[in-house]
Design brief:
Two copies of one chain form a homodimer. By secondary structure, chain A is α+β, with helices and mostly antiparallel strands. Chain A contains eight helices and five strands; from the N terminus they run H-H-H-E-E-H-H-H-H-E-E-H-E. Chain A has helices at about 5-15, 20-30, 35-45, 85, 90-105, 115-135, 140-150, 165-175, and strands at about 60-65, 70-80, 155-160, 160-165, 180-190. The first copy, chain A, has a three-stranded antiparallel sheet. Chain A has a two-stranded antiparallel sheet with strand order 3-4. In chain A, helix 1 (about 5-15) crosses helix 2 and helix 1 (about 5-15) packs across helix 3 (about 35-45). At the A-B interface, strand 1, strand 2 and strand 5 of A face strand 1, strand 2 and strand 5 of B.
């Protein structure tokens, strides 16, 4: 099987907007051929949202969610392209669900891109050492993926349906609305923390 | 008039919880005598809140304020000492007023202590240069104070009554509730910014 570089995965991701794992699998399937991998993703419907994701999203909503009579609060900005979509009930529900997700699942970053590379390297080293100790060196990458799914909002299983990630939910909304949608930033305060 | 050092002002402030200008004035009045300055502040009622301000405030409220149908959002944590006070209408009103203040007046810091010293030095240098150009070198400190009143939440004139600062409003609440009250942190998102 061809070696799939991280930069190739990133490139495919930028073109298609598909998830990292989907891009890696598609590239592996096509032995690193970028054009073929795009076709594979499109055939699977995973690149449906992709063409939208380069477009400017400056409209949207800033939404809050307060839990436990003010013991926990979340503020989140979710962007779309037009005020029209921002005002739909569907978009409001998406923004509210994202705020509830952040309250419940306590992510530290919106996406992997936000994690300082040093932080990723430290985690990777820890999992590699653990995996070697356990005699399963191949398990390290899986553990790192699990960690991403804990700390990155987009990689987290969605609290209302954990067979999908938050990224999946955003992608669904892109397909439904026909607009680029992005979770831009969030703040989460727990009282006295 | 005695030279009043910043560290002396800070010390008096830590003891009494009074405002920076009040502390500086009291120290100037007493020629730098820390004990006398405390008496002056107490006599003026400005240290009334002071004894409270060392106490641990870990209860309170995380409150949000959303403006313009989701175009601007604020999340703020205001602390007090007991859940009992946190649940009072008075405390809820204070937290709400602070959130509205942040939305309207766009501070960058809660207090002066949060400003990186380099940032203050750059501002000071600019105002000194300006003041010299205008032939009024003494005007620099006044300009710096005005800048603090723009960027620091506690130094801002309160939007509902600009004869008082936000710090005054917090001090009033401390006196009324008998508890230490602190604005801990805030986030402010403007859509697409």
């Amino acid at each position: 099987m061809a070696e799939i570089s991280a930069s190739l995965v990133k490139e495919l991701r930028a073109i298609t907007g598909a998830g990292i794992m989907d891009c890696r699998n598609a590239l592996a399937e096509c032995e690193g051929d970028l054009q073929k991998a795009q076709m594979v993703l499109r055939a699977k419907g995973l690149a449906a949202a992709g063409k939208k994701s380069g477009r400017v999203a400056k409209e949207g909503l800033v939404t809050s969610y307060i839990h436990g009579e003010g013991r926990l609060g979340v503020l989140v900005e979710v962007n779309c392209e037009t005020d029209f979509v921002a005002r739909t009930q569907e978009f409001k529900t998406l923004a509210h669900d994202v705020a509830m997700q952040i309250a419940a699942a306590d992510p530290r970053y919106v996406s992997r891109d936000e994690i300082p590379p040093e932080t990723v390297e430290v985690e990777r080293a820890v999992y590699l050492a653990q995996a070697k100790n356990e005699g399963k060196p191949d398990a390290a990458e899986g553990k790192l993926e699990k960690w991403f799914a804990t700390v990155c909002l987009l990689d987290q299983p969605f609290i209302r349906d954990d067979s999908h990630t938050v990224a999946d939910m955003v992608r669904d909304a892109i397909v439904k609305t026909g607009e680029n949608i992005q979770i831009r930033r969030f703040a989460r305060f727990r009282l006295g923390e």
